[in-house]
Amino acid sequence: MNTSNASSLFALARQQMQQGHIDGAIQSLIGVLSLEVQNAAAHALLALCLVDRKRLAAAEHEARAALAIEPQSALAHLALGKVHYARRRIQAAEASFREAAALDPQSDMPPHALGALYLNQRRMAPAGECINTAIELDPGDPSNFSLLALWHLRNNDPERAAAVAREVLGQSPDEHEALVVLGWAELRLGRVDAAYEHAVWAVRNAPAAEDALELLCAVKARRNPLLGLWFRVSAFIAGGSGTRTILLLVGMFLGVRLVSLLLGDLGYPSAAQFVSGAWLAFCVYSWVAPTIFQRMLRKELEQVRLRPDF
Predict the structure, then answer these.
(1) How far is CA 213 from its chain centroid?
(2) How far apart, in whole angstroms, are the C-alpha atoms of residue 179 and residue 212?
(3) Which of 6, 124, 146, 281 is an S-S bond match for 177, by CB 3.0 to 4.6 Å?
(4) 75: closest CA among 24, 27, 118, 109?
C-alpha cells in the first residue's frame, strides 16, 4: 500500500514541477520520502526543487543523499550539478553534468543543463552544440527550443530569438521560458507594448518566477524617462559576446578621450571640458540606474506572496 501511495505522490510531484508549482512538489516529495526513505529519485527531485527555492544547503544534502543511495543515478548527478552551479562552483557543476550525460546518454537533460551553463558563461559555441544535442535527443521538449531562442537572443539576434520562441508557443502556449525570451526579444526590438503583454502573461502563469518579474520591471524601466536611456545603452553594449562588450567599452572611453584632447588642441577648452563632463555624467548615470532597477525588482518580488499549496 505504501508503495502505491509513494508512486502516486511521486507522479503528482513530477506534474507539479512541470506546472511550476514548486512548493506543492516539495510537499509531495516529502510525502514520498516519508514512505520510502531510500527513494533516490525522490531525493534528487527534491534537491532540484530546493535549488529553485534557493535553499541550497538543504538541496545539497538531498542531492548527496540521492548519490549515497544510487551512485550511478544520472538524475542525482544532475541535481548535484544544479546545486554546484547555484553555489557558483562552475567547474564542479560542469563535471556533474558531464557525469550525468555519460550515465544516461539518451537523456536530453544533461546537455540542456550544460548548454544553459555555457550560455550563462557566454561560451556561445559549446552552448550551441549542447543545445542542439538536447534538441536531437528530445525534439518534443519545448524547453530545449526555448533555450535555443535564448541562445539567439544572447548572440545578439533578437529577430531569430523571437521567431523560435513563437514557434515554441505555437505548440506549447504556456511554455514559461519561451514567453520570457519572447518578451526580452520584443523589448530589444523596441516593441515595448508587445513585450509588456508577454511579461504580464508570464507573471500570470508563474507569479513567483523572478525571470518573469525581471522582464516586467525591464519593460517599466524602458518606459521610464529616467531609466529608458540606460536600458537602451546597456542592451546594446551587453548584446553579443563578452569580448564585444569589452571592446565597446574600451572604444567608447578612448573615443571620448581622443575627442576631448583634439578639442583642447584646436583651441576649444570649453568644448573639451563639456565632453569630459558629459562622459563623467554618463558613467555616474550608468552606475545609479542599475541600482534603481534592482530596487524596482525587489519591490516587485516583495509583493509576491503565494500560499504553499498554490
Answers:
(1) 12
(2) 9
(3) 146
(4) 109
pLDDT tens digits for 32-61? 999 899 999 999 999 999 998 889 999 999
Distance CA 288, CA 295 (A): 11
pTM of the full structure? 0.72
Instruction: Quote the CA–CA distance of 200 and 192 in Å, as a whole number.
Output: 12
Classify residue 108 as exposed, middle or buried by CB count within 10 Å of its CB (0-12, 13-18, 19+): buried
Band the pLDDT of 29: cuts 50, 70, 90: very high
Residue 260 identity (one-letter amino acid): S
Q: What is the pLDDT of residues 264-285, one digit of tens each?
A: 878 888 887 887 887 777 677 6
Pick from 176, 244, 173: which is nearest to 213 by CA? 176
| Interatomic CA distance for residues 193 and 191, integer angstroms | 6
156 SS3 class: coil
The three-state DSSP-derived secondary structure of 89-123 is CHHHHHHHHHHHHHHCCCCCHHHHHHHHHHHHCCC
| pLDDT of the residue at 221 | 73
Cell of 133: 544535442
Please say whether the beta carbons of 176 and 160 come within 8 A.
no
- List, as one string, the DSSP characters of 245-282: HHHHHHHHHHHHHHHHHHHHHTT-HHHHHHHHHHHHHH
- What pLDDT does residue 309 have? 45
Q: Which residues have CB under 8 Å from 52's CB, separation 6+?
A: 22
Nearest-10 Cα torsion for 18, 208, 205, 198 = -120
**96 with 109: CB under 8 angstroms?**
no
105 contacts: CB under 8 Å, gap ≥ 6: none
